[in-house]
Amino acid sequence: MRRTLGIVLFGGLAVVCGFGQDPTTAAMQATQQANEAAMQANQQAMQAMQQASTDAMRANQQAMDDAQRTNTFSVPMTRQPRFSVDSGHVSGGTLLRITCPTHYAVIYYTTDGWTPTTASARYTGPIVIDRDTSIQAIAIAPDLTKSLISRADYQVAGSKPEAVLPVATDGVLRIGTPLRLVTAGAVDSKTAQVGDKLTLTLEQNVLVGDHIVIPRGTTVEATLTHADRAGHVGVPGDLVFEVHDLVANGLTIPLRGGETMEGVNHYKKTFGLLMVPVVGVAALATHGGDATIQPGMPVTVSVTADTPLAPTASR
């Protein structure tokens, strides 16, 4: 008996029939398999869509939590400060004025790379730019949240770093005496946690007469009191640390000081996207920048109690 292998076209499918197999039966089986495969693919697609929807809901909830944490939607914001001189090269002695469009706003600023807070210098008049300067400013008006940070960098030809002089004493380090420290390592808000230590070093010698009692380079420990990673709605990461004392040569000198570092915010980008059709709420997932403390950043602290010094160190 002669056997043949047949190929039958059925519903657009090319069905290969086995020896002695009825072509119609083979075609029906092939159609059933194709339908089952299509149903399985549809089921997988539905599961993927459900997971994507769940992830989006979680992201939106996190975004709303971040917005609530920063009062993004509940309290109007003070408008950003404005600088009278644009960033770039300027002549030594240039006067910089800072203004704010919001009435009755108080402006605070820094010139050392740290993020300004209400504990920073208050703007009361023109600032003289006589060396390379990086200035940041915020404004706060009654019943409003603080403004976004305004930043500007100025370069002065022939600029030299500010000289750091020794601290001369009569044997007692007096209350209120400023000490200049500098950060010795990097810290990032992505990984930092409250309670972590930040190492700084003393940037000037402390003298009794002409004797060095606390040498430049002495290690000082600071403690992180605030550490937040960047969040949704453009919320930036931030780091805050405090310095409480300096221990050297059997002496413990009580200190007060600390700084704040905030990452780059993306509030404007986020709310700009909210106005774009289709993008909408998805814009709330936009992250701010993490805060990073770099080595070599200056930190000024002050002595909080008169402290007798023993001239036991070498010259």
UniProtKB/TrEMBL annotation:
<protein>
    <submittedName>
        <fullName>Chitobiase/beta-hexosaminidase C-terminal domain-containing protein</fullName>
    </submittedName>
</protein>
<keyword id="KW-0175">Coiled coil</keyword>
<feature type="domain" description="GH29D-like beta-sandwich">
    <location>
        <begin position="86"/>
        <end position="148"/>
    </location>
</feature>
<dbReference type="InterPro" id="IPR059177">
    <property type="entry name" value="GH29D-like_dom"/>
</dbReference>
<dbReference type="Pfam" id="PF13290">
    <property type="entry name" value="CHB_HEX_C_1"/>
</dbReference>
<feature type="coiled-coil region">
    <location>
        <begin position="28"/>
        <end position="62"/>
    </location>
</feature>
